[in-house]
Amino acid sequence: MTPTRVPAALAALAAAVALALGGALPAVGAAPATRTVPLVAPAAADPAPAAPAADPATDPAAADPAAASTQVTWGVRPADTVHGAARPNFAYSLPPGGTLADALVVTNKGDAPLALDVYAADGFLTADGTLDVLGAGEESTALGAWVQVETPEIVLEPGAAAEVPFTLTVPEDAQPGDYAAGIVSSLLVENAAGVSVDRRLGSRVHLRVQGDLAPALAVSGLRVDYDAGGNPVAPGAATVTFTVTNTGNSRVAPTEQVQVAGLFGLGRARAAAVDVPELIPGASVQRSVRVDGVWPLVRTTATIALGGEVVALPGAAAADAAPAVPGVTAAAAAWAVPWALIGALALVVALVALRVLAGRRRRARHQRAVDAAVADALARQGATT
Q1: Cα torsion at 69, 70, 71, 73 (round to 10°)?
Q2: Cα angle 347-349-352, degrees, rounded to a multiple of 5
């Protein structure tokens, strides 16, 4: 971020205050500032690691050495079928009423037999922008409900692998657009403390129901907070907070630009890129970004320009190019009064006023002394005559 030059008048005024105070005040240091691990791995590599129990955040037993006996490991991946080989996840394009068959490969990497439940569930975006799926007790209403797993319960011997076939059928009245879900393998284990933990491992499923795509993004909750800091001759910082929502019917990878400026666009500063994740339809994420080098020019306005592109399905042809994502902008303002500078100026004015007042008092005392001496001299002269 590169702030523009401060207006010459402000710079000169600040310099004068610094000289009057005997130098600039020291800058005030900036105050410093249970994660949920997603069920499904990031988009670039959907198959989860072979040892899901290794992370204490996903399995409390992993953090308990006494529960080592409850440790089990397994892996999942899309099967090599007519839909592709070595796929990172499941991705399809079907018309309303379309159907297909595919399979998930589940591998027992442990040294004991493994009994797993396998099911499909709707996907959603978590607060940190990662894709997760509904739990086993929650009802799916979209893609998760359109997938029927052929074998919902499987038992694997140590080192064994099995294909779990499933069928995806799109309803005739399904609306065009993108849908997300996951094919999940689930294991209920009990740790040393007697607490049951549902450990899940799965692969995401992306479906584009054919028809007109209407990508759209919206910005809401835009807010800017200004911190002038404690140095009257140095710029402060603005924190810009906003929420991005995918209001269209397609997956979108957003791009954004955030900038802050004072009155009449003076003192413009731009924020570094903000990590806004890929958004599935209906998903929202909130983000905050700090913009340094913002001068307190009475009123600060934050502006965000949002754009992006529709996420292409794997193997999509150029002829299947998605429509452009319409750009949107939003702005919010906050007071950015240079209180430190105003306070410094007030102190200078007060010192000057006291000095002038003291001078006037000295002159008044001197004049009174002169008047008294003249009056005394006149009185003496009158007495002698």
Answers
A1: 130
A2: 110
Q: Which residues pair with 272 in a beta bridge?
A: none
Distance spanning both ends of the chain, measured CA to CA: 89
**Cα separations (Å) of 188 from 94, 245, 282?**
34, 35, 31
The whole-number mean pLDDT for each consecutive block of 10 residues of the chain, a chain of 385 residues, reads 41 35 30 34 36 35 41 90 94 96 97 95 93 91 97 96 98 97 91 82 96 96 90 86 97 94 89 91 95 90 95 68 91 82 70 84 86 83 74
Strand pairing category for 99-108 and 74-78: antiparallel
With 0.90 as the threshold, say if the pTM is over it: no
C-alpha neighbours within 13 Å on the C-beta side of residue 308: 29
For the chain, the 3-state helix, strand and coil shares in percent, each to the nearest 5, are 20, 40, 40
Residue recorded with tokens 């731009």: 270
pLDDT score recorded for residue 349? 81
Contacts for 172 with CB less than 8 Å, ≥ 6 apart: 96, 97
